[in-house]
Design a protein that fits this description.
This protein is 34% helix and 17% strand. The protein has helices at 18-38, 84-95, 115-126, 143-148, and strands spanning 65-71, 74-77, 80-82, 104-109, 132-136. Helix 3 (115-126) links the parallel strand 4 (104-109) and strand 5. The N and C termini lie far apart (99 Å).
Length: 149
C-alpha cells in the first residue's frame, strides 16, 4: 500500500515569475525615489560649438583701456603692471576725460587664470562707475573657412 498522495512524480519546469516581478517593482520604486535626489543645482544647456561675433573695433584703438591678466597675480594696463589695489585708481585716471558712452574697459584673461581673479578685476572696474566691460577672447575660426584654406 504505498500509494501516492497528492501528485505526480514529474518535476514542474515552469519558472515562477511572481517573486521576480516583486523584486523588479521594488527596484523600480527605489530608483524613482532616489533619482530626483541625485540631481544637484540647475541644469544648463551649454553651447557646444559657437562662432564668436565680430571683434569690436574699439579694442585695437590706442585710447582703449585693456586690462591683461596673464596669471593669477599680475594685472597689466598696456605694458605697465599694477597691483589690484591701485588698478581702480589707474582706470579712473584713464577714463576721466572720456564721454559716458565711450567708457568701456576690456579684460583679456589667460586660460589658466582663476575665475575669481577676473571677478575681482570686474568689481574693481565697477567701483569706478564704469558699467561697460568687455571680455576679450580669441575668435574661433569657422570650420568651413578653415577647411577651405
Amino acid at each position: 500500500m504505498a500509494g501516492k498522495v497528492g501528485g505526480d512524480d514529474e518535476y514542474n519546469s515552469d519558472i515562477n515569475v511572481t517573486p521576480m516581478v516583486d523584486v523588479m517593482l521594488v527596484l523600480l520604486i527605489i530608483f524613482m525615489v532616489v533619482t530626483p535626489l541625485l540631481q544637484q543645482g540647475v541644469s544648463v544647456n551649454l553651447p557646444r560649438e559657437m562662432i564668436s561675433p565680430d571683434e569690436d573695433g574699439d579694442i585695437s584703438k590706442d585710447t582703449s583701456v585693456i586690462i591683461a591678466i596673464p596669471d593669477n597675480s599680475n594685472f597689466y594696463i598696456g605694458k605697465n603692471q599694477y597691483p589690484l589695489t591701485t588698478l581702480g585708481e589707474q582706470i579712473k585716471t584713464l577714463m576721466k576725460d572720456k564721454a559716458p558712452d565711450k567708457r568701456i574697459v576690456y579684460i583679456k584673461s589667460g586660460i589658466d587664470v582663476d575665475y575669481g581673479r577676473v571677478v575681482e578685476a570686474i568689481d574693481t572696474i565697477r567701483k569706478q562707475d564704469i558699467d561697460k566691460i568687455g571680455l576679450v577672447a580669441d575668435k574661433k575660426k569657422d570650420t568651413k573657412t578653415a577647411a577651405a584654406q
